[in-house]
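Holo model, flavin-adenine dinucleotide. Inputs:
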Amino acid sequence: MSLDSKIPNGPISDKWTNYKDHINLVNPANKRNIDIIVVGTGLAGGSAAATLAELGYNVKAFCFQDSPRRAHSIAAQGGINAAKNYQGDGDSTFRLFYDTVKGGDYRAREANVHRLAEVSANIIDQCVAQGVPLAREYGGLLDNRSFGGTLVSRTFYAKGQTGQQLLLGAYSAMNRQIGRGKIKMHNRHEMLDLVIVNGKARGIIARNLVTGEIERHSAHAVVIASGGYGNVFFLSTNAMGSNATAAWKIHKKGAFFANPCYTQIHPTCIPVSGDHQSKLTLMSESLRNDGRIWVPKSLEDAKAIREGKKKPTDLSEEERDYYLERRYPSFGNLVPRDVASRAAKERCDAGYGVNKTGEAVYLDFAAAIQRYGLEQAYIKGLDADDKKLVIKLGTEVVANKYGNLFQMYEKIVDENPYMTPMMIYPAVHYTMGGTWVDYNLMTTIPGCFSIGESNFSDHGANRLGASALMQGLADGYFVLPYTIGDYLAPDIKTGKISTDLPEFVEAEKNVRDQLNKFINNNGAHSVDHFHKKLGKIMWDKVGMARNAQGLTEAIDEIAALREEFYRDVKVPGTIDSFNQELEKAMRVADFLELGELFAKDALHRRESCGGHFREEYQTEEGEALRDDENFAYVAAWEYKGKPSEAVLHKEPLVYENIKLVQRSYK
Ligand SMILES: Cc1cc2nc3c(=O)[nH]c(=O)nc-3n(C[C@H](O)[C@H](O)[C@H](O)COP(=O)(O)OP(=O)(O)OC[C@H]3O[C@@H](n4cnc5c(N)ncnc54)[C@H](O)[C@@H]3O)c2cc1C
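Output:
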């Protein structure tokens, strides 16, 4: 099967407008005859469900939480990008497009990224109209801050709770439609398979997680908005329930899976503290606006700090190495995440780590507190030489900007980050890979769409901070509602799809067989036992730095672990009741396949780009070394029975509007 990305012709800045002007539309009366399933009600699925219902379609929405407003999107802290240029600092649609393509290390599709930059401004208007309380300046105008990989301030935010506030906006829009009966909401339901009839996606099989009942649901199109698969690493900043099952099930039914190895390791997370943990905590990138990252200059000081003989505040400025400011003077602490993460690892590997395990660096706010304190003293006409007063005033400013993040840190680490620098280390955070989609956001299965983090998205090999929310809401509010109409226009006379069709019967039987297999297995180990083992292989051999030998070993080890899992996993309870171990078993089974494809993709990509760092391919200074001649393509994998037999398809990436050059942030 050949890949057709369906990118419209014409100049890049006109493509989307011309395309929208010429696609097929479904008239409002006919929309009432069309059903759409949306799996996932995070920012992508929630915004899509609300908008599709507002347009008049009948929407059936599914999520595994007890309410859409508990989707993982609620965790997003730092902000959402938009090319509004409110700061007058040189931003524009083109600059956001350029930053995103460059930030993604030239592995994203130009046409999609340009469209994303174009609609970014509408998202802010939409959310403000919904009443989302985005931060405002003293004069009442919307405020912005900076994120990594850019030289402008274009990030809109709501303190450290941007995802929560945006999700409340999308959720209210959904609720209006739930109230009107246009959205039928299925909370606590997990999609376990896709049903294809005559080559088109026509429904899903879902399990009611409360009663255990297996249900058939039909529609004229299915939209997957199920989020990312970072939990393949076991430990990540993702919500505990985030999983790949919906995306993986459609992959097994014919949707190609693109760039699985592109994973983002976020530089500012609270370091791992031991084997007992099941989750890692992010400290938002917005903190890098004001926090300075450093380690001691000398190995002796680093050792003394690790042994508790010295405190970070004992070290003078001259004794500190602000290594990002030293290595990347133009972007400093705001280099993109992949660059910042590797730089932290490099310093810790060289022995400069500052916590007991040697895997932590400092994020220090002392300079910001001082700077803001002085500013406030001048504004208020107070004594700028009063050191205590300056610190008090500066602390208040920092608390206003990031208070909830500082509070979270103090609760977890039991140290006051206003007084002593935070300790941070990189952790798995976001997956740029996902189901391959064309310009219409349709997968290689007709009628099956994928939006938000679950698709391979617009971020190439590395996502810039605050761009995931932008992409999820762009897909849901402004892109899919157009493109899905073009697909559905010929379906207005199809009528209801029956769930008695043999395809539904067979898909339901397969799901039941899988569930029963786990219940009847009677092995010796819990699901988590295997998930942790998978996570360790992934982190050690497919994590921040990868090489051919480690990846080859990982592929064999994951395949062996999968066999062991099916032989020896123990899942208590029954299938027809509330059973969280059974839910986990189904998810981990999918991670055990996805993990192998992930390693296979990383092995085949013999270059370094963005979040994919192959040790064999680096510059003398340790930067990622791309190979544009041989690898400027999207790797889209077709399922052929097992991950080891997946077939690679290549979508060449053509850069007509941005020059392909080695990326630099100096
Ligand atoms: C700690 C943290 C902070 C972040 N901060 C930011 C930020 O400041 N700015 C930014 O741009 N990005 C941020 N991100 C990334 C961003 O939050 C996510 O990429 C984004 O929210 C994903 O949205 P989504 O709608 O695609 O998926 P999700 O929000 O993950 O929603 C997935 C939905 O799918 C449902 N689902 C999944 N599988 C199934 C199934 N099989 N059956 C039924 N339902 C299913 C779930 O119930 C849920 O409703 C952050 C990420 C993390 C981890």
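The first strand starts at residue 35 and ends at 39. Residues 138 and 260 are 44 Å apart (CA to CA).
Archived with the compound record.
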